[in-house]
Task: inverse folding
C-alpha cells in the first residue's frame, strides 16, 4: 500500500537528466503547500524551466521542461547564482544581497 501524503508534505521529483531526487521550495498558503521555486538537482545542476519564454531551448529541454546545461530559471531566488529557499532569500533580500532578476 502506498504511503499517503499529507497536504504539508513537499514532494520530490526525479531529475530527468541524472535520476537523482530533486526538491523545490514550497510555502504554506494556509490550506496546503504551494510550489514557489523551481525543482533543482543538487547532483547535476539541472533546473526546472519556469514560466519564461521558450526561445532557444534544446529539444531535450522542450521535452523534459528542465534546463540541461545548469542554467537556472531567472524567476528562481538565488544568492551568488545558487538557488535558495524562500526563507534564505528573504534574509538576503533584507540585507540587499539577493541576486537581481534580469528578465
Result:
Amino acid at each position: 500500500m502506498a504511503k499517503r501524503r499529507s497536504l504539508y508534505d513537499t514532494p520530490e521529483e526525479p531529475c530527468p537528466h541524472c535520476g537523482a531526487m530533486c526538491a523545490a521550495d514550497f510555502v504554506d498558503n494556509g490550506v496546503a503547500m504551494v510550489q514557489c521555486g523551481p525543482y533543482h538537482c543538487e547532483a547535476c545542476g539541472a533546473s526546472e524551466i519556469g514560466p519564461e519564454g521558450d526561445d532557444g531551448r534544446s529539444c531535450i529541454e522542450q521535452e523534459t521542461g528542465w534546463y540541461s546545461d545548469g542554467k537556472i530559471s531567472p524567476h528562481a531566488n538565488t544568492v551568488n547564482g545558487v538557488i535558495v529557499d524562500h526563507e534564505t532569500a528573504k534574509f538576503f533580500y533584507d540585507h540587499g544581497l539577493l541576486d537581481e532578476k534580469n528578465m
Q: What stands out?
A: The chain has a mean pLDDT of 86. Residues 52 and 66 are 12 Å apart (CA to CA).
